[in-house]
Amino acid sequence: MPQPPHSSAQVAAVPAQRVPVRDRDQDAPWHTEAVCRRDEASLFFAPSKEPTAARLSREEAAKRVCGRCPVMVECREHALLQPEPYGVWGGLTAAERRVVLARRRRREVELQKAARAGSRIAQAG
Ligand code: SF4
Predict the structure, then answer these.
(1) Which annotated residues bind [4Fe-4S] cluster (predicted)?
(2) pTM of the entire predicted model
(3) Greatest Cα-to-Cα distance within the chain, rounded to the nearest angstrom
């Protein structure tokens, strides 16, 4: 059975609510290529009460792992679409994913407004 990304004995220490979504789709093809399946699980999820400097350092290390992962794009899209609320996925922290999602929502709204405006112009013309 393929192991999900971030899988190792260390994942067992991650609070249960942070793991299941990744486990649910563990048969997705991109998981089999995930670099983090091996042994870096503790890099990707914050332990409780992690000091800021330690968090930043850990997240940078996790991003370096993601940077050499062949399925980074797939992983990132997965984390954005779920959405995954915790951890580093696809080279993005949870906060960075929230920014990406907010940008996407704004772009979608702008496109809808432009489409409505175009429709009104076509009807008037
Ligand atoms: S991009 Fe990062 S989090 Fe995603 S599978 Fe690869 S190493 Fe894991």
Answers:
(1) 36, 66, 69, 75
(2) 0.74
(3) 66
